[in-house]
Amino acid sequence: MPDHVLTLTCADRMGIVRAVSGFLAERQCNIVDSQQFGDAATSTFFMRVHFVAVHRDVTLAELQRDFGAVADEFAMTWQLHDSTVRSRMLIMVSRLGHCLNDLLYRCSVGALHADIVAVVSNHPDFEALTKAYDRPFHHVPVTPQTRSEQEAAVLRLVDHYQADVVVLARYMQVLSDDVCTRLSGRIINIHHSFLPSFKGGRPYHQAHALGVKLVGATAHYVTADLDEGPIIEQDVVRVDHSLDPAQLAAVGRDVEAQVLARAVQWHAQHRVLLAGAKTVVFR
After folding, report:
1. Cβ(190)–Cβ(147) under 8 Å?
2. What does the pLDDT look like over 145-162, one tens digit per residue?
3. Contacts of 178 (CB under 8 A, 6+ apart)
4. Is the peptide bond before 196 cis (omega within 30 degrees of 0)?
5. CA of 238: how far to CAs of 98, 198, 203, 251, in Å?
C-alpha cells in the first residue's frame, strides 16, 4: 500500500489534529503512527503522521494537491513524502574517516534509510575505501585562493547526483555563507561536543590537560553561524584520568559516528522539524 509521512508546523490552535485525521480518513488512509508537540513558549504546533493509503490509486500528487486547503486554513508549513523513497546522501570528508566508514557500512547493510550517491573530499585519502563500497569518489582540492571555485564544483555535484542531504563526516573546511544558505536545512555536521571550548586543533589534548570527565559529540544542521546550527542529536560518555589523549580521541570517534548516524537516520525518516534555532525530533 502507498506509504507516506506528513510533517507540519503552524501556530497552535484547536482543531489541527481533527483536520489532519479527518482529511486522511476521507481518503481511506490509515494512520500507522502519529506524534505531536505543542511548544507553549512559542505557541507553535509540530506534528508528524505516518500513514498508508488503503487504495493504491490514492497518489502522492493527489494528496499533496488536496492537503493544500487544510494547510492554508491553518497557515501550515508542511511536507508530504513517500516514505518508501530513500534519501539521497552526498558525504563530504577530509582526513578523519571514522564517520565516513560507519555511514558506508550502515548503508551497505540497509541500516539507514538513505543511499550514498557520492563521496567528496578535499583530500584523496579515502578514495579506496569509498570505491570498496562501489560508491563514486570525487577529489576536489581547495586552497584559500580556490575556495569559491571548489564550492561551485561541490554544488554542481550536489545537483548532478540530486542529493537530498549533504553530510559533513568530519569535513574540516568552513563553508561559505552562500553554500549554507543555498543548502539550508540540507547539511548535517558532526563535531566533538567540547565546543565552544577547545577550539582548533588537538581538542582532545586540550581536554586531557584540563581533566575533562565527559567526551561527547553534537550533530546539527549547518548555518552561517559556525558550529551553532540547530542541534539534531547529542551524546556523551564518561571518562576519567586513566585515559591519555589518544584514548580520549578514540572514545570521541565512537560517539561521533553513533550520533551522526542517528541524526542522518532521523533526517532521512522525516523526524526532524526545524523550530527556529532548534529542532523538534520525533523519535
Report:
1. no
2. 999 999 999 999 999 999
3. 151
4. yes
5. 20, 18, 17, 10
The pLDDT tens digits of the residues spanning 35-47 come to 999 999 999 999 9
CA gap 182, 236 in Å, rounded: 32
What amino acid positions are annotated as catalytic residues? 227
Q: What digits encode the pLDDT tens for the residues 14-33?
A: 999 999 999 999 999 999 99
Q: Which domains does the chain have, with CATH numbers?
A: 3-82 (3.30.70.260), 87-281 (3.40.50.170)
Packing angle, helices 98-108 and 245-268, rounded to 10: 40
**What HEC string does 261-281 produce?**
HHHHHHHHCCCEEEECCEEEE
Model-wide pTM > 0.85: yes
Question: What is the DSSP annotation of 15-33?
Answer: THHHHHHHHHHHTTEEEEE
Cα–Cα dist 134/155, whole Å: 22
Residue 60's nearest CA partner among 2, 1, 8 is 2
The amino acid at residue 162 is Q
Sign of CA dihedral 98, 100, 102, 104: negative
Question: What letter represents residue 204's amino acid?
Answer: Y
Task: Determine the Cα–Cα distance for residues 42 and 207; give it in Å rounded to an integer.
Answer: 37
Do 70 and 34 form a contact (C-beta atoms < 8 A)?
Answer: no
Question: 178-227, pLDDT tens digit by residue?
Answer: 999 999 999 999 999 887 788 877 899 999 999 999 999 999 999 988 77
Residues composing the chain: 283
- The confidence score (pLDDT) of residue 200 equals 79
